[in-house]
């Protein structure tokens, strides 16, 4: 693996165009005593009569063009200024931002910081082997990116191509993404846990002729043969001409004619690489994600709008300041890794952690040991990991010094109250705000989160709460009518476009329109349900397909899970609706107990029913409770509800593609457990 040599003095941040962006950073100092919009957000200095967070939010949606123009001018470095702020029409699914503008994303993430602070650390690679972290400065990352950009160019990769990256979270993966951006190619990062078939499907759909991978991956002390997976995948990908192979371990792998040793070839390249001048709306990357059909969709994000939105949300949702160490533990194969491990932090000149390991390797103290060692200020993780760690007890957290932490983030699924409180009380010692951030691959960046807020404004556990600047959420009823009152639930839509949203589905614009714009004409439909409280705060109630209807009462499965999870014996749960003769739908709960809990299942079932009945209503009580050792999950940690639903419907034929499961054996256990429940 390419390690920093710390000896090159030759770097030229060619073609940097310095904007005013460097100068505003020093305004963002801590210790503000009261709210002052311009001090909080220097870009807002020219917004007339705006004082306070809520006023700034109002302005950002009512004067959306002014808001985004000011932010885009100041926060990004442009090769050519944009002519128009936006040209969007949600009813047509047309989304264009900053047209006429030209810029280079890698220059925004690297060169301009190299110009002002070349020796600042850009990446801290927290390798799987604990205590062996490696730091890369902005100068080193730029150099690595330029060599890689030149190498790709020499091998014929050009503007408009799409390079598939199948690598674990590591500096060369980041440099690969940035090298694509530098020369104008799009990237398609495929999570390195996907099977060869899933990888092949994505390579084919993206029509990549170039793949970048590593010989082997190392995660949780286990070796994965990534190059071998690529070999198998490219068998069915006639478009692939070349595969670049980096060395994560010493192990030599078989190299075919199309394979190129990445580090060896990089050494031959120059450390200066002319950045391509890209149009704002040129494609930056594709990222595949699952929809309600079996075929993954390649969501398309473009240059300026995406980068701006990732940078702005990173800065303000997490309260990231110059000099902080940002620790997002998501894999770069997911949108969270794209926006908050790579693009947001680097656009802001931040120091970002690349986490290669797992929360329990070599023991359940891994995250907090890392927080202590790297002095992480903002920690951003997933509820599923938090729930897992709760099972192991507080001592694994308390063993380590977490005094560097200022903000804790949560993403990817609803965070239940118990997990939220543990995260807040045990991990954050009650000092750190917990920001439950709601967003999607489609939205590019965080759309709803408790922060930024007025100083000392309340944060409600388990609620994403406040829309970010420029975001205007609305709720719709089942007839497609706008719900205007508070204390109400509905389908979550966005009434206005924002720069970070996806532009299309690669090769399938029709599917893009049908999924997101046709259900509620004039609005972007998120596919999620939400509740708006009396105070106007948003709480995500789960995917709409996870909403069940019991005797005419709507109930989010997440709401029932939240109650079940509050039981001290329960580690996690998944609630599924199933077809019921009388009630329409019934409630089926899968429950995983904490390690070492010794209770009678019958007693616990009664207790859980009582709790649900007490906290929600009797109709929400599970008809069946199945105790399981574990739940089937994707490799990113999401519970595969589709699989659970099929098991509960006794439709084993329809289980579908299980290749994205973390451990397919979990499904067999669930099927057997279900048979036992039915036979009782
Ligand atoms: C869910 C991940 C509740 C939601 C960034 C969304 C959440 C889907 C939250 C997107 C949250 C994400 N609370 N649910 N804070 N964050 N989700 O594309 O259902 O992997 O639609 O993006 O995750 O998942 P994706």
Average pLDDT: 91
Ends distance: 56 Å
Strands, count: 31
Helix content percent band:
25-40%
The proportion of residues in beta strands is 15-25%
Shape: globular
Bound molecules: 5'-O-[(S)-ethoxy(hydroxy)phosphoryl]adenosine
Q: Which structural category fits the helices and strands?
A: alpha/beta
The CATH H-level superfamily of the domain at 555-679 is ANL, C-terminal domain
Q: Which CATH class of the domain at 555-679 applies here? A: Alpha Beta
Q: Which runs of at least 5 residues are low in confidence (pLDDT < 50)? A: 7-33
Main β sheet profile: 8 strands, mixed
CATH architecture of the domain at 555-679: 2-Layer Sandwich
Set out the fold topology.
Elements: H1 21-24, H2 37-40, H3 53-62, H4 64-75, E1 84-86, E2 97-99, E3 102-103, H5 105-116, E4 121-126, E5 134-137, H6 138-154, E6 162-166, H7 171-183, E7 186-189, H8 196-206, E8 210-214, E9 217-219, E10 222-224, H9 226-234, E11 242-246, E12 259-261, H10 262-266, E13 278-279, E14 283-289, E15 297-302, H11 303-317, E16 325-328, H12 335-347, E17 351-355, H13 366-374, E18 378-381, H14 383-392, H15 395-398, E19 407-411, H16 417-427, E20 434-437, E21 473-476, E22 482-483, E23 488-494, E24 504-505, H17 509-517, E25 524-532, E26 538-543, E27 547-550, E28 553-556, H18 557-565, E29 570-580, E30 584-593, H19 601-615, E31 624-628, H20 641-648, H21 665-679
The chain binds 5'-O-[(S)-ethoxy(hydroxy)phosphoryl]adenosine.
């Amino acid at each position: 693996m390419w390690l920093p040599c710390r000896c090159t003095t030759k770097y030229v941040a060619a073609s940097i165009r310095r904007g005013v962006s460097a100068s505003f950073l020093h305004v963002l100092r801590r210790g503000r005593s009261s709210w002052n919009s311009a001090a909080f957000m220097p870009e807002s200095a020219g917004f007339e009569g705006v004082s306070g967070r809520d006023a700034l939010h109002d302005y950002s949606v009512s004067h959306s063009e002014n808001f985004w123009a000011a932010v885009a001018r100041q926060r990004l470095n442009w090769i050519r200024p944009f002519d128009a702020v936006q040209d969007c029409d949600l009813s047509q699914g047309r989304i264009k931002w900053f047209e006429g503008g030209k810029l280079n994303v890698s220059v925004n993430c690297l060169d301009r910081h190299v110009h002002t602070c070349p020796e600042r650390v850009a990446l801290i690679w927290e390798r799987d082997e604990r205590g062996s972290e490696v730091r890369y400065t902005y100068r080193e990352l730029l150099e690595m990116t330029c060599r890689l950009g030149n190498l790709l160019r020499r091998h014929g990769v050009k503007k408009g191509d799409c390079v598939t990256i199948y690598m674990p979270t590591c500096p060369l993966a980041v440099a690969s993404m940035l090298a694509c951006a530098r020369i104008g190619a799009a990237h398609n990062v495929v999570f390195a846990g996907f099977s060869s078939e899933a990888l092949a499907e994505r390579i084919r759909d993206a029509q990549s002729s170039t793949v970048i991978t590593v010989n082997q991956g190392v995660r949780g002390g286990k070796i994965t043969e990534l190059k071998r997976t690529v070999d198998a995948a490219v068998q069915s990908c006639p478009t692939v001409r070349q595969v670049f192979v980096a060395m994560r371990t010493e192990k030599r792998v078989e190299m075919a004619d199309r394979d190129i040793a990445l580090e060896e070839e990089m050494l031959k390249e120059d450390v200066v690489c002319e950045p391509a001048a890209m149009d704002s709306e040129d494609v930056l990357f594709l990222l595949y994600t699952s929809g309600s059909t079996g075929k993954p969709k390649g969501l398309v994000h473009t240059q300026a709008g995406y980068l701006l939105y990732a940078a702005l949300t990173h800065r303000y949702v997490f309260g990231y300041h110059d000099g902080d160490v940002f620790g997002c533990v998501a894999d770069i194969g997911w949108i969270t890794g794209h926006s908050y491990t790579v693009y947001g932090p680097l656009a802001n000149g931040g120091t970002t952690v690349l986490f290669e390991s797992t929360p329990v390797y070599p023991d359940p103290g891994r995250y907090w040991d890392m927080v202590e060692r790297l002095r992480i200020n903002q920690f951003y993780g997933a509820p599923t990991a938090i729930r897992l760690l709760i099972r192991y007890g507080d001592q694994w957290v308390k063993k380590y010094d977490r005094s560097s932490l200022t903000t804790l983030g949560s993403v990817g699924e609803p965070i239940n109250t118990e997990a939220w409180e543990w995260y807040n009380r045990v991990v954050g010692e009650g000092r750190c705000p917990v920001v439950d951030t709601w967003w999607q691959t489609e939205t590019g960046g965080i759309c709803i989160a408790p922060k930024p807020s007025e100083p000392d404004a309340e944060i409600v556990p388990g609620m994403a709460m406040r829309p970010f600047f420029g975001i205007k959420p609305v709720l719709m009823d089942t007839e497609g009518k706008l719900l205007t009152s508070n204390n109400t639930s509905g389908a979550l839509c966005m009434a206005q476009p924002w720069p970070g949203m996806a532009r299309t589905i690669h090769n399938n614009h029709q599917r893009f329109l049908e999924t997101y714009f046709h259900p509620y004409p004039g609005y972007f439909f998120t596919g999620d349900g939400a509740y708006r409280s009396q105070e106007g705060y948003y709480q995500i109630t789960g995917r709409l397909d996870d909403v069940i209807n019991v005797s005419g009462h709507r109930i989010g499965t997440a709401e029932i899970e939240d109650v079940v999870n509050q039981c001290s014996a329960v580690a996690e749960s998944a609630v599924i609706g199933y077809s019921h003769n009388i009630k329409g739908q019934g409630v089926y709960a899968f429950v995983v107990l904490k390690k070492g809990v010794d209770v009678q299942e019958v007693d616990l079932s009664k207790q859980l029913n009582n709790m649900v009945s007490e906290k929600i209503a009797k109709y929400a009580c599970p008809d069946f409770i199945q105790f399981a050792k574990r739940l089937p999950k994707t490799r990113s940690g999401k519970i595969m509800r589709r699989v659970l639903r099929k098991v509960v419907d006794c439709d084993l034929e329809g289980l579908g593609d299980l290749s994205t499961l973390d451990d397919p054996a979990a499904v067999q256990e669930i099927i057997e457990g279900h048979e036992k429940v039915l036979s009782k």
